[in-house]
Write a structure and sequence with these properties.
The protein is of the alpha+beta class and about 350 residues long. It has one domain. The protein contains 8 helices and 10 strands. Strands 1, 4, 5, 6, 7, 8, 9 and 10 form an 8-stranded mixed beta sheet that branches. Helix 5 packs across helix 6. The longest helix is centred in the middle third of the chain and has 23 residues. The chain is globular and about 65 Å long.
Length: about 350
């Protein structure tokens, strides 16, 4: 057993410090670039193709207290980032609580190629392998996939061996509505598995296998102001029949909540992240889907905590790991097993073209 010292990112030398201070690089837009909205401006209209629906249960949205979040995050990350990993020092041997000790691992992983993809400190040319100032969601998704998601996946696999069969899957089909302005990933198993009773992804009631959805809207659609309005939203308008005198149109913040709710229900996961890359918000829906709990807005370049640390913590929470955030219970809710899950055309393709036509006529 040995400790690698050549070309080893700081995260392997001090993983706990790395996750706190690994700052995401800028997308590289020029301050005068009119492609993205300037600071302080809202998008006039978010083009998400959603409308009010009778089956959408969301009613109330509650903020997660920042002091509670900070306390839980610090305590939880100190435990699971360091303790489960074999840490070696010349004088102390195996230690379970030394956050600055090097890890006895290869970087990148010699079998999977996984690695910590964000360097410290950032350089002006990093990341050299990604196109600066992305102009479509496919190029933007490469930034999210190759930087924060790849790094968090490496951290989870290092610290929690039970997650090594998990990854950020991309279940969204390009033919779906809004695929050019709305994209999502799922932190879930690479392939179906038979969950053991002790699997950390199962709560007392048997949680769904797919544990966390990461929704992406590009910054030229979802501005900083739009993100703040989304996170500050307190309620979702009730369903009104078309033609009702007091019907509430779905403005931007409601459109995002509607699209997010539909995607989470379809994928059967209560935990979510919403990001434009420039800003990040973390949240969860209640067991009966009638309430949501959401954090404040975090900027991409935040440190202590960083986006990487917050994302790792939210995965730990979604997987019901000890000491992580627990979604509060909400009064009396209808069992989520009785929920009518909205379908899209892609869901019924396996049943033939007639099934697709029938769905589109509803």
């Amino acid at each position: 057993m040995y400790i690698e010292t050549l070309e080893t990112p700081p995260g392997i030398v001090n993983l706990h410090g790395y996750i706190q201070y690994c700052r995401l690089p800028s997308l590289g837009y020029d301050p005068l670039d009119t492609f993205v909205l300037p600071s302080g401006h809202k998008n006039a209209k978010n083009g998400l193709a959603v409308r009010q629906e009778r089956w959408r249960r969301l009613e109330n949205i509650h903020p997660v207290p920042e002091d509670l979040l900070m306390s839980l995050r610090s305590s939880c990350m100190s435990k699971f980032i360091v303790s489960p990993v074999l840490v070696v020092t010349p004088t102390l041997g195996i230690a379970s609580n030394i956050p600055s000790a090097p890890l006895n691992v290869h970087e990148p992983d010699r079998l999977t190629g996984e690695r910590l993809t964000i360097i410290i400190p950032l350089s002006d040319t990093f990341p050299w392998h990604l196109e600066k100032s992305p102009t479509d969601i496919i190029r933007l998704a490469q930034w999210i996939d190759n930087l924060p998601l790849a790094t968090v996946k490496r951290i989870m696999h290092l610290c929690i061996p039970e997650t090594r069969g998990w990854t950020f899957n991309n279940p969204q089909h390009r033919s779906e509505a809004d695929s050019e302005i709305f994209h999502y990933y799922l932190w879930s198993p690479r392939r179906p598995t038979n969950l053991a009773a002790q699997d950390p992804t199962r709560d007392a009631d048997g949680a769904a296998v797919k544990s966390l959805l990461i929704a992406v809207q590009p910054p030229w659609i979802l501005s900083e102001c739009d993100m703040k309005e989304f996170a500050a939203c307190k309620s979702f308008p009730p369903f009104m029949m078309p033609g009702h005198a007091y019907s509430t149109p779905l403005v931007n913040k409601y459109k995002i909540w509607a699209k997010l709710w539909d995607a989470c229900v379809r994928e059967k996961t209560h935990w979510f992240v919403v990001t434009s890359y420039n800003q990040w918000v973390f949240g969860a829906f209640s067991r009966g889907w009638s309430a949501a709990f959401v954090t404040g807005v975090m900027n991409f370049d935040a440190v202590g905590p960083s986006v990487v640390e917050s994302l790792a913590f939210w995965i730990a929470s979604a997987m019901y790991l000890p000491g992580a955030f627990q979604c509060p219970k909400v009064g009396t809710e209808v069992d989520d097993a009785q929920l009518d899950i909205p379908s899209i055309a892609y869901d019924v393709l396996v049943h033939g073209s007639q099934a697709v036509l029938a769905l589109c006529q509803i």
